[in-house]
Each structure stands twice: as structure tokens, then as C-alpha cells.
Amino acid sequence: MTHAAVTLTDVSKIYANGTIALQNLNLSVRQGEFVSLLGPSGCGKSTVLRLLAGLGQMNSGQIEWSGGQNQQKLAFVFQEAALMPWATVQENVYLPLKLAGISPRAAASTIAETLELVDLQGCERSYPRELSGGMKMRVSIARALVTHPELLLMDEPFGALDEMTRSRLNSDLLHLWSQKHWTVVFVTHNIYEAVYLSSRVVVMAARPGRVVAEVPIEAAYPRTEEFRTSPLFNTYCRQISQALSQTGASLDTPLSAPVLEIAIAIQKHRDPET
Fold it and tell me: Residue 42: what pLDDT?
């Protein structure tokens, strides 16, 4: 049995305006697992990611890391690519290493390897305005992966993309996950995306934010287009849809963009002439 990478016990988060984002939430994520958090806006999915990333403080409860560590080697991919428009692809991916004090020369090989990993080799000198939406998100993912994380937090990274691009990036992400064996916590509103990607889907409901169901997706990897059209896939989608409907949840409302920590860093390094 794989050990837990991180465990949240009785975690509650109440914002200053009185909104109960989470109440007595319990969740354990095993090492190497791909877990999707699925639910409507306001159910606390993004709040869970922010607490895991250390971007906020819980009001009560406990977060316990594997081995008793308080820090985990993690990376965060936000809903928006948030690329620096005046910087090339290579410079955007270099940003986390720059903030860590690593010189461009020392970082060059790592950046090149990471861009190849997300199939962006040859785009090093391109600017964001020259890239498609899918390519911009690949740059954002590369910027997260360049630090060699063990835990990857992803806050609905493909929500703004067209379905064909989203489907392709879903498959690419699974391919990378199978190679690198990250632990992934993935936020989405899309039932089909959650079932296709995940080893387990955690269904959440709002008011207050809480877990209402956990559905293991017992389908073998690698997953293909055949899985998306299989009776098993449809069975899981119906099961999760039923869990959502029992809470009165709706997935029609889009998720609002989170406050981006990376954007703060970008502002600090903005070229004053741009």
C-alpha cells in the first residue's frame, strides 16, 4: 500500500467576510496518485490547493506531510498561464530558477530539458503573443516543472481552452505523469476530464466546503480515446454526476481566477519601459 504524501484532517477555513470555504475537511492523497477535486464554484477546491501550497492559513485542523515534513517540494499551475508578455518562452520558464538565485548559465540545460518534456523545443525565443492558448499553457506547465517538483498542484489549467486542445493536453499530462511519478492534485469543473485523468475523483460541495464523495477510477493506464467512449467511462461519469446532484451542485458557473503568487513575482521584475 502506497504511503500518503499529504493528509488533511478536520481542516476548516473561514475568510474575513465570514465565508466558510472549508469545514472539517478530511482528505488523504497517496504518493504518486492523481487526484481530481471536482465541484462547483465556492466549494473550496482552490482553497485546498492554496493551503497545500502554503498560500493561506487554515482556521483549524492539521496538514501532515509524508515523513513528518512541514515543507514539500511542490509546484503550482494556475488557471491562467500568467506569462510575462515582454519575455521569451525561455525567460518565462527561467523565472522560478531566477527567483531561487540560479544563474542563467547554470539553468540552461534544465530549461532545455523541461521545454523538450512539454514539446516546446524550438520555441525558446518566441514571445507569448506568438503562441496559441495551448502552447501558453505548456509554457506555464514547464515553468512549474523546471523546479523538479514531487507534488504538482493544478488549478483548472485547461478550463479556458477549446475541447480539442484540452483533450490533447489531458493526454500529454497523463503521459508526463506516467514518466515522472508526481503526486498530482488537480482542480476541475469537468466530470469527463476528471474521470479521464484521475486515479480518484473527490467530489466537493459548497456552503460549507466539504467532501461529499470519493470515487476511485479503476481503469488501467495509459488511457486512450477508447476509454473515453467506453461503457466503464460512462458509468463513472454517471456515478459522479449523481453524487453532485445529491448536493444540489451545478457546474455551470465558471471558476474565478485565483490570486496568482507568480503574478506578484512578475510585477516585481516588470520592465519599467513596457
Answer: 86
